[in-house]
Amino acid sequence: MKNNEELLEKNNSDNEEQAYSKLIKIVNPNTEEKATKININNLRYIIEEIYSLKFLKETQAILKDEEDNEDFPNFVGNYFMNKYNKKEILDKKLIDFTTSINFYSRNYKDIQTFSSFLNENYDIEDLIFYLFVRNCIEKELKFFFVEKTKEFSNDNNNDTNEILVPVKACKKIGLSIFGSDNKNLLSNFLSLIEKIIKNDPNNNKKQ
Predict the structure, then answer these.
(1) Crossing angle of helices 40-63/72-83, nearest 10°?
(2) 159 is a domain residue
(3) Any idea what DSSP says for residue 39?
(4) What is the domain range of residue 96?
């Protein structure tokens, strides 16, 4: 009997058929492919690469005063089609990807968030704001998530991608996101951070 941690059979439930249906229609893969679960750190690297490319495209459109009308499922579909030219490889990679997203999203919040964007449970404005916040964090902490995730992907024994952010950095990030004019939003953000720190059992009171 095959270990479920190494190989996942294609799930034909109604819920999974509905999930990522738009992406599947775009790429139109061979659904007879057996799905192999991707290591979670490698999956996170793919996700961060997609986020980075999407933010770059949105930024370039703004600089050119153009409107980007491509929705997220189409963008992800084009990501895979541009990366894998051979149809059989493309089909395998996409089936592995969607199956792994569905599997890990049950237990990991970051994968669940990506899944929600891919299924368009959030609209494109939500995605752009999410990517903007992500970029503000990168600028303040002076690293790129895609590079940091690549470091994690080299450690198969570690399935966490947690990054500790100092309180002072959180305040600067809040200012970058909301600006000094949106005092109420900034205050609510900082109050939320303080509440999280206060309720964190692992908090050692270091600032």
Answers:
(1) 110
(2) no
(3) P
(4) 14-144
